[in-house]
Design goal:
The structure holds two protein chains of two kinds. By secondary structure, chain A is α/β, with parallel strands linked by helices. Chain A is built from ten helices and 14 strands. An eight-stranded parallel β-barrel of chain A has the order 1-2-5-6-9-10-11-12, surrounded by eight helices. A two-stranded antiparallel sheet of chain A has the order 3-4. A two-stranded antiparallel sheet of chain A has the order 7-8. Chain B is an alpha+beta fold. Chain B is about 20% helix and about 25% strand. In chain B, strands 1-2-3 form a three-stranded antiparallel sheet. In chain B, a hairpin with a 4-residue loop joins strand 2 and strand 3. The relative contact order of chain B is 0.30. At the A-B interface, strand 4 of A face strand 2, strand 3 and helix 1 of B.
Chain lengths: ~280, ~70
C-alpha cells in the first residue's frame, strides 16, 4: 500500500476502538464500558462511517474482563442494534495469563477479527506486557481454528521484525493486516519519517491500519489516509477531541476522520467492502 | 493481598460513579482499570512489585488497609 493507492481512490477502512483495556470513565466519562453502552457507541460509530469495531470487555465497575461471557454480551447487544459491522475482539492483556487471553476468541459466533500483539510493551514503571512468540503462536493457532482474521498490532519497529518472523514460522492468510501504532513509551516515536519507514518495511502485499495515540491520533490518521492505509480512531486511543477538550463520544472522533478521508478523496468502506478487502 | 492504599469509592471531587471504583489513596484519584488489577493483585500482578506508586509511598501496615466501599469483580 502506498501513495499510489491514495491516488487511485482506494476505499478506506475505519475501525472504531470504543473502550480499550487501559483507561476508563475516570479519564473520560463518555467512554463506554457496559455492554449496552458499548453497543450504543458501536451503533453511533457505524452511523458515522466505521466498518469495524475493536472491542474490549469490562466488568460492571469498569475493570478489565477477559470472560467469554462478557464479550458475548457485548456482541449480542451490538447485533441487536447494528445491522452489519465487522466485530474485532482484543486478545491483549497486560499481566494476564495466556489462557485467559484466549477467552475472547470463544464467543458464538467467533469474532471475524481479533488483535494479535506482536511483542512486549512497557506499562507504568515496573510492568511489561510480554507477548512472547509462544503466546503469539498459540493465539494465532486458535484464530486459525476458529476462522478469525488476525490484526497484527505493531507497537514499534522491532515488532515489524516479529511480523516477518511470524510469517516465517506460520502460514498467514492473505492479505496480512498490520496495525502500526505511534505514540509515547514503547510505541514507535510519532514522527513522519518513522511512519514512512514502517510502511516500507511491511511484508509485500500487506494492508496496514494506522493508530496515533493521544494528540497524534488525527495527524497519523491523516498520514494513513494519504499513504493508502486504513485508520483506527476512538476513545481507546485518545480521550481528547482537541488539546484539553475531552471527546464527547467515539462517534465524534469517527465523524472527523471520515470527513477528512472524504475531503481527501478516499471513500470509506461498508462492512461488506471491508470483508472483500481483508478476505474475511 | 490487595494494596493497602486501595479503596473503592463512588465519588471524588470530580467524579461520581454508579458502581464503586478503584481509588488510590496515595495520589487521591480514581485509577485506570488496568492499574486496578495491579492494586488487587489479580492474575500475575503484584502491587508491591509492579506499582511505582506503592513502591514510592510511605510504609503502611498491610494488615490495616484503608476504608473500602464495595468490592471489585
Amino acid at each position: 500500500m502506498s501513495y499510489e493507492d491514495f491516488l487511485a481512490d482506494e476505499p478506506l477502512i475505519v475501525t472504531a476502538a470504543l473502550t480499550g483495556g487501559v483507561h476508563g470513565k475516570e479519564a473520560n466519562p463518555n467512554l463506554p464500558e457496559t455492554p449496552v453502552e458499548i453497543a450504543r457507541a458501536a451503533a453511533d460509530a457505524v452511523d458515522a462511517g466505521a466498518a469495524v469495531v475493536h472491542l474490549h470487555a469490562r466488568a460492571a465497575n469498569g475493570e478489565r474482563s477477559f470472560a467469554t461471557e462478557r464479550f458475548q454480551a457485548i456482541d449480542d447487544a451490538i447485533r441487536e442494534r447494528v445491522d452489519d459491522v465487522v466485530i474485532q475482539h482484543s486478545t491483549g492483556g497486560t499481566g494476564v495469563p495466556t489462557d485467559r487471553r484466549h477467552l475472547p476468541l470463544r464467543t458464538n459466533p467467533p469474532p471475524e477479527m481479533a488483535s494479535l500483539d506482536m511483542g512486549p510493551v512497557n506499562r507504568y514503571d515496573h510492568l511489561t506486557s510480554e507477548n512472547t512468540r509462544a503466546t503469539v503462536d498459540a493465539l494465532h493457532e486458535e484464530m486459525v481454528e476458529r476462522g478469525i482474521k488476525p490484526e497484527l498490532e505493531v507497537f514499534n519497529d522491532g515488532h515489524l521484525n516479529e511480523v516477518h518472523g511470524l510469517l516465517n514460522r506460520r502460514e498467514l492468510a492473505d492479505p496480512v493486516y498490520a496495525t502500526l501504532l505511534f505514540g509515547d513509551g514503547t510505541l514507535t516515536r510519532p514522527r513522519p519519517a518513522n511512519f514512512l519507514n514502517a510502511i516500507a518495511n511491511l511484508p509485500d502485499g500487506a494492508q496496514f491500519n494506522t493508530i496515533g495515540t493521544g494528540r497524534h491520533q488525527l495527524p497519523f490518521a491523516t498520514m494513513g489516509i494519504i499513504f493508502g492505509g486504513h485508520v483506527r480512531v476512538g476513545l481507546e486511543d485518545s480521550v481528547y477531541y482537541d488539546d484539553g477538550e475531552l471527546a464527547s463520544s467515539n462517534a465524534q472522533l469517527i465523524e472527523r476522520v471520515v470527513e477528512l478521508a472524504e475531503t481527501l478523496g478516499r471513500p470509506v468502506t461498508t462492512p461488506a467492502e471491508t470483508r472483500q478487502i481483508l478476505e474475511l | 493481598m490487595t494494596c493497602p492504599y486501595l479503596a473503592y469509592r463512588r465519588e471524588s471531587e470530580d467524579h461520581h460513579f454508579e458502581e464503586p471504583r478503584a481509588y488510590c489513596t496515595v495520589v487521591d484519584r480514581f485509577v485506570q482499570p488496568m492499574r486496578a488489577d495491579l492494586c488487587n493483585d489479580r492474575y500475575a500482578l503484584d502491587h508491591a512489585e509492579h506499582c511505582e506508586i506503592f513502591r514510592k509511598a510511605a510504609p503502611i501496615d498491610e494488615a490495616d488497609p484503608v476504608d473500602t466501599e464495595g468490592t471489585s469483580e
